[in-house]
Amino acid sequence: MWQSLKAYSYFTKIRIINNFAYSFEIMARFVSNFLVLVITVFIWKAAYKNNVGIAEVNQEQMITYSIISILLVSIYSVRVDRIVNERVREGFIAIDFMRPINLIVGWFFDDIGTSIDSFLLTLLPLLIFSIAIIKVPLPANLTAFMLFLASVFLSYLILWIITAMTSMIAFWFIELGNLSFVRSQLIRILSGSFVPLWFFPKVVQKVSAFLPFVYIYQVPLSIYIGKINFQQALQSMLIQVVWILILIFLLSLIWKKACRMVTVQGG
Amino acid sequence: MFRWLKHYISVTNCFARLAIQRQMEYPTFLFGWIAGNFLQWFGGLWLIQTIMSRFGDLAGWKAEQVIFIYSLSVISHGLVVIFFLQTWVIGQMIIVGEFDRILLRPMDSFFLFIVRNINFVGITDAIPGIIIFFHACSLVKFHWSFVNIVNIGLILIGATLIRTALYMLVGSISFWKINRDALSVLMMHFQQQATSYPISIYPYSLQVIFTFLIPIGFISFYPASQFFGIGTILDIPFNFSFATLFMGVIFFFLASYVFTTGLKKYESVGN
């Protein structure tokens, strides 16, 4: 157990070192996230100026929500789709299969490396700039913050598995670049990362409760700003766990099929 | 002179034909883009409608007026994707040595760069934009006079040139500092977010920047403000569609100058 964990942690280590070679890209990501954050904050400020009495959350909560949402976007840098796409297209996947490791776990640890880099080089600067220019995004209380951290871990797993699943389809269709695009658009609209779903009609809220997307952004963010109470938070996190189990099951099914389907061009 | 022009036009045609044939090779690829882009633009429309229906208006702009702004933004984005997508990947072109080929040809390098690709797939961006535009027009009871149609045409040309110029300006940085076009992605996210809403929601200083320094206000906000007669920080005596075109041409020339200067400095990678 310890031995294999050590082996997988090399994926993380190598990714961290590799990413540091692209410091310009990381800087650009920081600027990009920051600009989007500023725009989002001003949209909410302008919206709340009308004072139409929004019962769900007040302006301060909504701005905190937006700041934390962007911070999560910055560390949820899942690249497994790109890795799989590249390995399959270039034919490296044949060599990968010979390695005495579980490839999916390896790719997961690879992405953890990117998230660690993003935490240091994107999230922290974003947080500092947000505090300096916009506001201190304080959580509702300490319990909420602890629950938030646990929920973030679960939501990262959901996002990662969904991304990995869609990327497996690369084994059937060699070009999948745009399938990832479809997935990321669905997440953008239905996860509540920009507009939380409580602003949508009731029907949409009911349907989305049965989809995995809200459990990626909206659930941890709602816990953070105190939109949902302790009991509701535990309930939501239980649903997150259930989703993870379902998705892991689906992923292993697809993976088994995909391994048999793999075609290597020119090989 | 005439023969020279004819030669350049025939080269443009040839590039366009090659590009379209190349893209028709993978039909499933096109299908994915249709699904993704329709989801992206109609989803964005849905988000705007949701915010507006809950909050009333945005800095004095009604829902249908914001949708009109958004539609101008989406169409001009689509036009950039069709005609000038290569301005997003200047860094990549440098890394693979693409400019070596362009420089060796007996034609103007900037011209060859600009016409080298027609990205047929970009219509999957433009079509949702056009649909949303007609939807917005019926909501705001847009007056379809000859003058207004010409105005819309000028605005779209100007807006496309402004967007392309901004991509070229950040892309040309790659001539001095090797990078992988991370700034183009940044530019895309920024343009998309900032041109979908009225820029009057920002503080005065930011509005000035979005008007003169990074003139994205002319892409959708200022033209729309004139159609609806909504006051802005900028009070100019002539038609805003000319202003958009004017800014587009000025910034396009500026960007082409920076690009050509960069290309002169360009040293091929590798050997």
How would you sum up this structure, described in words?
Chain A has 267 residues and is mainly alpha-helical. Chain A has one domain (2-261). Chain A is 75% helix and 0% strand. Chain A has 11 helices and no strands. Chain A has helices at 2-20, 23-48, 59-75, 80-90, 93-98, 103-133, 142-168, 177-190, 202-209, 218-225, 230-261. The longest helix of chain A has 32 residues, at 230-261. Chain A is globular. In chain A, 42% of the residues are buried. The mean pLDDT of chain A is 87. In chain B, 42% of the residues are buried. Chain B has one domain (2-265). Chain B has helices spanning 2-23, 27-55, 63-83, 90-95, 98-104, 109-115, 123-140, 146-171, 173-176, 182-194, 204-213, 221-228, 240-265. Chain B is built from 13 helices and no strands. In chain B, helix 3 crosses helix 8. Chain B has 271 residues and is mostly helical. The A-B interface holds A 22, 24-25, 28-29, 31-32, 35-36, 39-40, 42-43, 45-50, 52, 54, 173, 175-179, 181-182, 185-186, 188-189, 194-195, 199-200 and B 26, 28-29, 32-33, 35-36, 39-40, 43, 46-47, 50-51, 54-59, 177, 179-180, 182-183, 185-186, 189-190, 193-194, 197, 201-203.
Biggest pleated-sheet summary of chain B: none
Strand residue content of chain A: under 5%
Helix fraction of chain A by DSSP (H/I, runs of at least 4): over 70%
Total number of beta strands of chain A: 0
- State the end-to-end distance of chain B: 38 Å
Biggest β-sheet of chain A, characterized? none
Question: How would you summarize what this structure contains?
Answer:
The complex is a heterodimer of chains A (267) and B (271). Helix content of chain A is 75%, strand content 0%.
List keywords for this structure.
heterodimer, A: 267 residues, mainly alpha, 11 helices, 75% helix, B: 271 residues, 13 helices, 73% helix, 0% strand
